[in-house]
Amino acid sequence: MSNVLRLHGAMLLALGVVVTAQNVSQGWPYMFETEEVFPSPPMRTTGVLAESLTLVNQLITQLTLEEKVGLVEGSDGPCGGSIAPIPRVNFKGICLQDSPLGVREADFVTMFPAGIAAGASWDRNLIYQRGLFMAEEFRAKGINIALSPVVGPLGRSAFGGRNWEGFGADPYLAGVAAKETIAGFNARGVQSTIKHWIGNEQETMRNPSTGPDSVTVLQESVSSNIDDRTMHELYMWPFADAVRAGVSHVMCSYQRLNQTYSCQNSKSLNGLLKGELGFQGAVMSDWFATHSGISSIEAGLDLNMPGSPTSPYFHNITQFIRDGNITEERLDDMVRRIMTPYFHLNQHNSSYPTLDLGLNEFKAQEVVAVPILPWKAVSAQNIEDWNFGPPKNRDVRDNHGEFVRELGAAGAVLLKNEGALPFSKLRNVAVIGNDAADLSQGQFALNNTNPVGPEFGANAVGGGSGVGRFSYFVSPLEAIKMKMGAGLTQYILDNKIAVESIGSLYPPPEACVVFVKSFTSEAYDRSTLALDWNGDAMVEEVARSCNNTVVVTHSGGTDLLGWADHPNITAIVAGHLPGQEIGNSIVDILWGNVNPSGKLPYTIAMEVSDYGTQIANFSGTTDINAWQSDFVEGQYIDYRRFDAYNITPRYEFGFGLSYTSFELEKIDIIRLTKEVSSTAPSQPVSPGGNAALYDPLIFVNVTVRNSGSVAGATVPQLYLSLPNSAPAGTPLQVLRGFEKTKVLEPDERQTIAFILTRKDMSFWEVTAQQWRVPSGDFTVRVGFSSRDIITRGSVTLI
Ligand code: BGC
């Protein structure tokens, strides 16, 4: 038996994993399965949803079996996903629409900063407002369900193609950001969807490969093989926060989890999500992620998207019921889970905005442009069935552009500054690189999953379903020209030309701002952590001749930045994916209108190999089950790995400079209860799990002082080290608190209070299947990054 298996054996058994002789012979349990958990827990009849549940039950009594079946699968309709109306009972249908950064298939909408930029702001208020403003736009277009936000992928691998849709590679940060976003959606009465549950950490082989008939499976999708403790402490963590925050729906993911497709994994859907976390909404499939009818329904899937005709698995539920394979009560529970948020958020009221007919035209256009798409827009005869109403092509943007500018700057991270920034009295600047340019391939590519992205155009969002159509776009070049006014703005946008003829600039610029990017998109993982379009070589070439080279990256995650120590590179800003105001946001940072306060929500390594975990790739194999991604690293991803193996990062998790400096003055730890039991008193499960897990156990106060000469904000971060009694595999430290300060004037102070809950201070004990507070000394570490711990204290609870 390998060491790895010995280490994880108990955990796997607790997750119901069947460890076979074959597993053992192959080391890490290559072929394990999870236990089955049945039946699917029905919705509770008490709690905050009780009133709306009554309304759903009234609806259910009026519906025929066929009509109920119509509610649990998608249909043709005006939206990315649509639930058909039932005119007989005056039900006007439900519209589901991407994306996590704004309304996707629509006009006159705002493209907000991507999740990774919001995460990099570490600013709860801004993240809440982002949710609120996005919700206002979904609502004003008449959309019922937003397919947002994302906490899976979490960012197990720096190469993950969709990491940028989420908030960063830490479950606590992602959980807080999800909670704030969902609170924003709930405040505006728009249903939210947390996705993708769970273990959705790579794009490569996320779906099975099929033969020429498109049906016969040649190879099953990759299986994310995750042990029970890692599942709880890492991947489930932010989903638990989302469920607790009242998320309406959960989208199950494409890939397999421990050998079983995510949307038919009864352990994860019935057991973990509906059982342990007490989730009260619907489990919705990702688009075409359903692979069965009866098995999926039994396993806990409630809504099949996009539904018939291409994904007809739920179409025969009437037959399943007649044959006794599914109970009508299970179907009713599916309907309740889908429809309760609709009533709870008052979307049945006439006060809810009508659907913009433009959505339907957009859909029709998409169907023409991409003929393989199986769904259709609403036909002229059926328009009345839906909740359409004037005006068409509504402008729902309000003044959200201003907010985008603000959050875009807040999500920029200053990585290096040798006094070059902020610019002042600049008369002659050079703007270099294709990432400074305006968009060159249109504001929205209908089917824009492309592994490379356009050559020319600032990289303001990623690719795939997680984006939308720009109504306008402020490029870095445009914003810098505006800022420079009568000054000289020289520019070369073609990276090749920049490398060849940087010397052609005259007079020599006082500063050369190089804009570089790396595009990341759904459906593809990154093949390299280098910059696109020869960006790294261009940076080095510019730096050879320009001794004040400022580099700005626009990227969905890590770029290795091998040239970072070049003496002529005087500043580096990781601008992330800031949305439509990309130019103004970066100008605000470069010229110091905004003092940078963003922090890295992931680690930038010196070398690719430092990251350890890679995208699983079994290309070239033929075995139907060959694609196995064993999460053998357990919790050691991102900074947890760098800490555990003592690897020095280039820029660590939580790092980010400012134009001023800060001090942390004192740490004060206050125990809130005298007696702490090691496990939570048992309470009925409420959304998020046992409510007692969220009881506060300690307060930690610190005082921050602006010790520099200009105003600015920062982010004190609290990292907790569990006592030695915690089992092997426990990270050296985990983020358990952060707070963005207000903008502090020089010498101004602010006291920050962190609250740590029972769950924050526990580990998941696999054998007992519960969270346990370990005995011994906790070390509470507070600083300005995961490696810049300024003050620490300790506390013993048990
Ligand atoms: C994506 C989801 C998205 C859905 C609908 C899928 O390909 O994985 O995130 O919500 O499409 O567009």
Automatic annotation (TrEMBL):
Q: Which SUPFAM superfamilies match?
A: (Trans)glycosidases, Beta-D-glucan exohydrolase, C-terminal domain
Compartment list: Secreted
Please give the pathway this protein is involved in: Glycan metabolism; cellulose degradation
The protein's Enzyme Commission number: 3.2.1.21
Identify the domain of life.
Eukaryota
The reaction(s) annotated as catalysed by this protein in its Swiss-Prot or TrEMBL entry are: Hydrolysis of terminal, non-reducing beta-D-glucosyl residues with release of beta-D-glucose
Q: State the UniProt keywords alphabetically.
A: Carbohydrate metabolism, Glycoprotein, Glycosidase, Hydrolase, Polysaccharide degradation, Secreted, Signal
Signal peptide positions on this chain: 1-21
Q: Which SMART domains match?
A: Fn3_like
Instruction: Tell me, in one coarse class, where this protein mainly resides.
Output: secreted
Q: Name one GO cellular component term.
A: extracellular region
Q: Which Pfam families match?
A: Fn3-like, Glyco_hydro_3, Glyco_hydro_3_C
Q: Where is the Fibronectin type III-like domain?
A: 714-786
GO biological process terms on file: glucan catabolic process
**GO MF terms on file?**
beta-glucosidase activity
Q: State the family named in the UniProt similarity comment for this chain.
A: Belongs to the glycosyl hydrolase 3 family.
- Protein's job: Beta-glucosidases are one of a number of cellulolytic enzymes involved in the degradation of cellulosic biomass. Catalyzes the last step releasing glucose from the inhibitory cellobiose.
Descriptive protein name:
Probable beta-glucosidase G
The record lists the organism as Didymella heteroderae
